[in-house]
Amino acid sequence: MIRREDGAGGRYMTEFLKSRIFRYIESRAGEIALSDMEDSADFDDSYVLTTDSYTAFPPVFRGGSIGSLAVFGTSNDLAVMGAMPAFMSLAFIIQEGFDGDIFSRIMEDIANSAKMLELKIITGDTKVVEMNAGIFVNTSGIGVRNRHLEQNLDVVREYRDYPFRWVRDCGLRSGDAIIVSGSIGEHGIAMLLEREDLGFEMDVESDVRPVWFAVRDAMDAGGVVAMKDPTRGGIAETLNEMSEKSRVGIVVEEELVPVRDDVRAVSDALGLDVMSLANEGKVVLGVIPEMADDVLKALRKHDRNAEIVGYATDRFREVIVRTPIGTEKILPPPALDPVPRVC
Q: How much is the average pLDDT of 179-198?
């Protein structure tokens, strides 16, 4: 029996993919295989492809909607490979009787988001169903090789052998700096507060936005060897994936992880781990140590809260969080996203 947890991100979803999907289909069209579970895969020296389905409740929320979430979420999966988002498909499954005004708001967000990125939506599909579905959005995106990616790879190869044509989430080596591009947990908390009357008075909004512009400038600085956007499962899931795939450990300084005070307070009050909350406009980067300060400077042009939070190590293979009092604890991958239906 398929469980909700099997599609909620985290450890359960990883186990589901390995046991229920990859045992039947496994292929590659280029450097990146399906079972590599990267954010996108290449099918040509110049192009990468990604696909995603979005099920956000409510469909319009603080700071965005399922429309902006779909466009930016898809473009972000391309951007973290170093690819410039260029083309996208767009498909809807809509419940019969769905509010027309809300759908118009969603379409306005889609149009404005695509315009911001100069991204062309070139094909799509629409189905209206009787079941209690609300609205689902499915997208596929194509990203293209660009001069910013080439600049980054040229800089990386001045310092080490880098065998990949794209920026891979398995590219870390011991000593690499770990950078988070801004404060975390805002999307998960914003969606939770939108659903529940929990009595918290705060102005937090979803961080849903494109990471391409920050990634572009980071690559112009050069030295980026690994990237991933921390959506479902938050940076806990992302760091564990990067660690496992790169076969290195990661040390994170807890006090350096950028978190809004109110987001941390709500998370603590509700017993949520802010490290496991979804984000929709952030990126985790691995950077060769010699270029870390330059990359951080480039990222801070877009978000002053960007921070170097730790480093990769070959002393162990886990993700370790070092607390402000000097103790250390293992940060495991979450079993599932603590706030379901957020992306």
A: 90
CA distances from 81 to 61, 222, 223 (A): 28, 14, 14
Q: Which of 13, 342, 335 is nearest to 189 (CA)?
A: 342
Task: Report d(CA 246, CA 303) in Å as an integer.
Answer: 27
Angle at 262 between CA 304 and CA 255, to 5 degrees: 60
Q: Which of 45, 105, 116 lies closest to 76 in space, CA to CA? A: 116
Look at the chain and report how many structural domains it folds into. Answer: 2
CATH number at residue 288: 3.90.650.10
Can you list the alpha helix ranges (DSSP code H) found in the chain? 10-16, 66-79, 100-117, 147-159, 186-195, 212-221, 234-246, 261-270, 292-300
Q: On the CB side of 330, how many CA atoms lie within 13 Å of its CA?
A: 9
| β-pair type (120-129, 84-95) | parallel
pLDDT tens for each residue of 213-238: 999 999 999 999 999 999 999 999 99
